[in-house]
Design brief:
CATH topology of the largest domain: TIM Barrel
Low-confidence stretches: none
Strand content: 15-25%
CATH architecture of the largest domain: Alpha-Beta Barrel
Mean pLDDT: 95
Largest sheet: 8 strands, parallel
CATH class of the largest domain: Alpha Beta
Shape: elongated
Oligomer: single chain
Length: about 350
Amino acid sequence: MDTLHIDGREIGPNHPPYIIAELSANHNGSLENALQLIEIAKNAGADAVKLQTYTADTLTIDCDKEDFQIRGGLWDGNTLYKLYQQAYTPWEWHQALFEKAKELELTIFSSPFDYTAIELLEELGTPAYKIASFEAIDLPLVEAAARTGKPLIISTGMANEAEIQEAIDTARNAGCTELAILHCVSGYPSPAEQYNLRTIQDMQQRFDCTVGLSDHTIDNITAVTSVAMGAAIIEKHFTLDRNGGGPDDSFSLEPEDLTALCRDTKIAWQALGKVNYDLTDAEKGNLVFRRSLYAVKDIKAGEAITKDNVKSIRPGYGLAPKNLPDVLGQYAKDDIERGTAIAWELLKQ
């Protein structure tokens, strides 16, 4: 199974989940907002912040025909061109954003949507690439990103099994040696009950890749749960204000929620641990509170041990409860005071 190394961080199932804070369109047209969001991602504990590198002209054409109209959902009433004009991150901002992240020692990379975006990101020294789910079937784009030799993360929303395999094969045949795929539901937002997180484990086995989650639900429950299913990467949109009115704001995490995501997914990973049947450090001091055999009445020397004078109670300094059948019917060697832990040496053999 591939593992990834991005900016010196090893990413895979044997490491804490790698948290990607997706800035997307949540700058709402303000470079100041974008820079502030990078600071928020750093302070929240994210491992990386991710951009999207496109323009309206690299994604579509300015056309009002029915094919280009958005009907229903968050972006109802827009044309594709108008939506992307509103949502894109201006290319002239990229250098400032990369410099800001570098200043904060926060990894930054992006999703390119055409070859010119890859050229720009290469000039900026991006350490990795993310292929968006809508672009996973654009095999020439996958190939171009893979040929850079950088680690590649591919979202799989809407892609079927054959299409996922094609994208993986394309990336590997183009020389990609560090590859991850993200289970994803490309709805904005997506209901948790449609996420089918058990798919993550199947993807690990079927595609022999590090697998993560691109999460478009409106809270953190799905993301935290995915860690238990083996997700090694968590990608989640974040924003300054969920009610800010931007294209992606309504399904994005606010700063305190992003902090909770970073904290809770790491706790979930730590809780997975390993297969273990031995006492943990937290348990060792509580052994004494298990049940064991005690004299619950004063017992005279030579008196028989019965269910009336010896019982299984707490604490745990006496013989284990499983020994009660063997203790019953034996005789006290000496006087046994009520509240004495029963041991073999107190009994006549």
